[in-house]
Specification:
Elements lengths: L1 E5 L2 E4 L4 E8 L7 E7 L6 E6 L5 E3 L7 E6 L4 E6 L8 E8 L15 E2 L3 E6 L1
Parallel strand pairs: 2-11
Antiparallel strand pairs: 1-3, 3-8, 4-5, 4-9, 5-6, 7-8, 9-10, 9-11
């Protein structure tokens, strides 16, 4: 499975970006798809995830601002980010997990495949 993330860039605080993750190699219909981010000097942290059943999970700091969605027919996952804040600045990674259980959905190690990351910079 190969994942290709795109859509990052420089945006002012309060602005919006839409990240995309294109998957290839096999269908990801039954996979958990997640977005993580890593700021300089910090550990990679969970942002959002969506199951094949469309159950959705968010970290508290992005609830109400970010929306994760998936199009299984196109093997695509999206992260719509609104009301961006400087603290959202990070490299954003998409990830896929064929066996990720709900209790581990926020743990990076529970995902088998990772994209290369796309940089999001939010200026104040």
């Amino acid at each position: 499975v190969q994942l290709q993330a795109s859509g990052g860039g420089l945006v002012q605080a309060g602005g919006s970006l839409r990240l995309s993750c294109a998957a290839s190699g096999r269908t990801l219909r039954n996979y958990v798809m997640g977005w993580f981010r890593q700021a300089p000097g910090k550990e990679r942290e969970f942002v959002a995830a969506v199951r094949w059943s469309h159950s959705i999970y968010y970290t508290d700091s992005v609830k109400g601002r970010f929306t994760i969605s998936r199009d299984s027919t196109k093997n695509m996952v999206y992260l719509q980010m609104n009301s961006l804040k400087p603290e959202d600045t990070a490299v954003y990674y998409c990830a896929a997990g064929p066996r990720t259980i709900t209790s581990m959905i926020r743990v990076p190690l529970s995902y088998d495949y990772w994209g290369q990351g796309t940089l999001v910079t939010v200026s104040s």
